[in-house]
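Hello again,

I reread your note about wanting to compare the complex against the isolated chains. To keep things tidy I'm splitting this into two emails, and this first one only covers the full assembly. Below are the input lines as submitted, including protein chains and any nucleic acid or small-molecule components. They are followed by the predicted structure of everything together. The single-chain runs will come separately.
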Amino acid sequence: MKVLKFGGTSVGSAENIKKVKEIVQSQNGDVIVVVSALGGITDKILTAANNASTGTGDFHTELKEIKIKHDEVIHSLFNGSGSIKYIVAELLDELEQILTGITLVGELTPKTLDRIAGIGERISSNIVAQFLGADRKDASEFIRTDSNFGKAIVNFKETDKNIQEAFNDFSGIAVVPGFISKNAKGEFTTIGRGGSDYTAAIISAALNVEILEIWTDVNGFMTADPRVISKAYTIPELTYSEAMELSHFGAKVIYPPTILPVFQKGIPILIKNTFEPENPGTRISRT
Ligand code: ASP
Ligand code: MG
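Full-complex prediction:
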């Protein structure tokens, strides 16, 4: 079994989601696909929420952009037909209602923000699951955290047990939203910006899968920032500690907490480029 995580750019347009489908379908064995929100959506949700709570209370510009982006993708992938339209409309309705509530009270708490921050993942996972003809499994049902809204701490004891139960008789392809979780009271929490990588690592470790693949829009870890150093090149192999060090010093390839759960199990991480799948990428392991 493998876990493949696709970031916001990889699921950012209908054309890119078709590439994701090709990559997933070319795998052998069972695959769990973890997805981010469509590129840029989380930022727009957070901006909308902040605008709703302050000043003019005008969140409609962002909300409209969020709607248009999803409409375009759905229209192009499903020809505007099928149940996906209604699922997405319902989630966007939920977003609009909460934004309206924030406007009315003129206040935005971290708890309310987490109630909507993950709507992008709740939508993208439905779109990708339907497009792949796969089951959707909801991370917020099995990733249990404390109530540190915005960057909640995972309760691994409960989470691991929940994941093992949720995937007990799983085979084939499943699609899971990244980033989202719930506390013991059943309230939505999130595990930090960029946290979909972490979701994928938590699932990988709980199920002791053979490999965690992070599919992104670059070829892997590089020797330097290519915008600054023109001769920077992709590093084919790294140890976990080297990857951790590079992440902490600013390499934005993966969300730093991602490495620990898979490191503890010795599960290799492979960084791959959705737009250049033939590139070998960067492999992170013990050696
Ligand atoms: N959508 C979330 C974010 O933008 C999580 C992720 O993409 O990893 O931070
Ligand atoms: Mg990311």
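For quick reference: The radius of gyration is 19 Å.

B.
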